[in-house]
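Z., the sequence and structure:
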Amino acid sequence: MSRLRLFEAIGVEIEYMIVDAESLDVNAVCDRLIEKMAGEPVSEFERGPLAWSNELVLHVLELKTNGPAATLEGLGSLFHAEVRTALEALEPMGSTLLPGGVHPWMDPTSETRLWPHEYNEVYRTFDRIFGCSGHGWSNLQSTHINLPFGDDDEFGRLHAAIRTALAIIPALTAASPFLDGVEQPALDARLEAYRLNAKRVPEVAGQVIPEPVRSEHEYRDRILQPLYDALAPYDADGVLRHEWANARGAIARFERGAIEIRVVDTQECPTADLAVVALLVAVVRALTEERWAASAALDAIETDALARLFGATVRDAGEALITDRRVLGAFGVSRSEATAMTLWRSLADRVAPDMVPDEYGAAIEAIVGYGSLARRMRDAHRGGASLAAVASRLIDCLARDRMFLG
C-alpha cells in the first residue's frame, strides 16, 4: 500500500474528561458510555467520519478522525456534533464532558480507574512499571495531530520541522494552570507533569523534544532501540516493545507512516481545538518547505536548547521570552528577542491568510490576542471565580462550541 505524502491528509484526536454533572468530579464511566453507544465496551468504534475510543483511564473519552482526513475544513463542526451526541448519552448517567488539559482538582491517587477491558494488559504493564495513579498519567487530556510522510526524505524534513515547533507550542495551547485545586507555577501543568511521568526509565520521554534524525533507520537506532533496551528489565514479555511506548512530544508512527504531535492541551471547544491544529499545521508546513530556514539548520539547533525553551513555554506560555537567534531565525524573525506569543502573532499573520480555513480565523485571532486558555482561566480565577465556576464555564463553552473569553 502506498503511503500518503506530506500534508495530503491529517489525523486529529481530542480527549475529554467525563465528570459528574453536579459535583464536576471525575466520573469513571467511559466503558458504560461506549457500551451504550456500541453495544459492548470496545476500545474503539466508528461513527462515520469520526470514531470514539477509550484511553488509559475510565474517565477519559477520545474522539478522533476515522482514519486520515483529507482536509481540516468542517472538522470543527463534525467534532462538535459528536460532542453533543456524547453529552446526550451521558445525561442519563448524571455526567457531562469537561474540556481542558487536566482536571483542576482530581486526586489521582484515589480516583484513578484503569480501563479494565480490551488492551488492559498494556495499561497494567505501564501501571506496574511507572505507577499510573499520578497527574502525568491519569489526569491529562490532549489533542494529538498525525501528519503523514511518504519516504525518508519527507520524514527527515517533517521531523526537523516538528521538533523545532514543539518548543513553542505550549505558548499557544497551554490549558492546564490548576492541579490539586490550586494554581500551579506552570501554566501548562499537564506538560510539566508529563515531562516527569516516566522518570524511572528516562529513555521513554528523553527531553520531550526528540533528537534530530533524518531517516527511519536512524530513528530506530538512536531513539527506539535504546528505549526498548531500557524497558527490557521491567518488561520481560515485551508488552511495551512498540513505537507508541515512546513518550516524546512527537513520535514517529512508522506503522501508519506519520509523525504524531502530542504536546497540545485540549482547548475549550472543538473550534478552538481545530483552530490551533490548523495554525500549527500551517507553521509546520512552512518549516518543512524551508520557507524561513533550511531543514539542516533546524536539525542543527541542539535538543538541549529546544528543551530549555520548551520548559519556558510550559511554565510561562506566551509570556516566555525567546532569546535564541537560531530559533527566531528558524521562524523568519530577525529580532534578537521576542515573547513566544509575539512570535505566534507574527506566524499567524504570515501563514493563516493562505493556509488556514476561514472558519478558524476568529478563534486564532482570539487566542493570539487574549493569550492561551490557561492564561484566561488563571485570570478568571484570580478575578474571583472559583475553580468550580471556571470548570462550569468550560463545560458551557464545550457544549456551545464557544471560546472562553472575558
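The mean pLDDT is 96. The two ends are 50 Å apart (CA to CA).

Let me know what you think.
H.
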